Fold Aminodeoxychorismate lyase.
Amino acid sequence: VVGEPAGSSGSPGRPSESTDARPAPFVQADPTLPHLSVLDLGVTRGDGEFETVMVSQGAAPAIDAHLDRFAASARLLDLPEPDRAVWRAAFDAAVAAHPPVELLAVKLVLTRGIEGKDTPTGWIVAQPGRDFSRERVEGVRVVTLDRGYRHDVATTSPWLLQGAKTLSYAVNTAAIREAKRRGADDVIFTSSDGFVLEAPTASVLLREGDRFVTPSAELGILPGTTQRRAFALLEELGYETGAKRLRSSELGRADALWLVSSIRRAVPVVELDGVAKCVDRELTARLNEYLGEH
Ligand code: PLP
């Protein structure tokens, strides 16, 4: 689904059907055909934002939280506020247009648009989601890596856009390659002054006895939609939950650790910086079952 300003014409693809007299302000397009200009600042500078939404058996339990975060990222990037109704309608159209599959990963993208023009580019792509079933059971080995920013970077230097889900994920993927060079699978970033942040594409969850905690969003990290849903289940099960500043030494002391995100759901950390961690297989399975449905 490719967005176009209402009333304009000439985009490739077939207009989406609408019961309304006005045409929908987006078109449904064939994702195998070219649509994006080589002059788009999303491509040439990674200047834009995105969201990846899980659609499981046709349902998108976190869509509202993703649309909230999409709007928050746009504010941080000084992009125009996304029109929620249009994006929601385009999201529904993208999901409806895809042949039914168990798990869809639906990506919403908004860029600063073509250089020199003042119009953002937006699109949505629905694709089958990556299968994380093995990782959910076997877990991942994680190394901590310094992100190089202090814990208060979001307040001292908001232009660094920490906490926005920008298209510039080159650093995130470089960190994962560094983890692989170190014989691990994934990363937990720490601040330069020693606080736990997040993984390159996931939030971090710790268990400390009967309390589950995640690093607070004020540390310039993404407020995770999956972490929030995981906490809803844990609270239902009678556990305490909360967000706080965590020293990296607390990772080693935690009873268990997970990386959580929309498509992955909850993946246990089996090794942290070369040291084995305990895994609660039953609770992990319960979390994953819940996250597929709620
Ligand atoms: N933190 C980062 C840097 C991410 O890229 C992601 C998701 O891709 C998350 C956290 C987890 O967010 P969510 O649970 O909403 O998918």
User: Anything to note?
Assistant: The longest strand covers residues 48-56. The two ends are 25 Å apart (CA to CA).
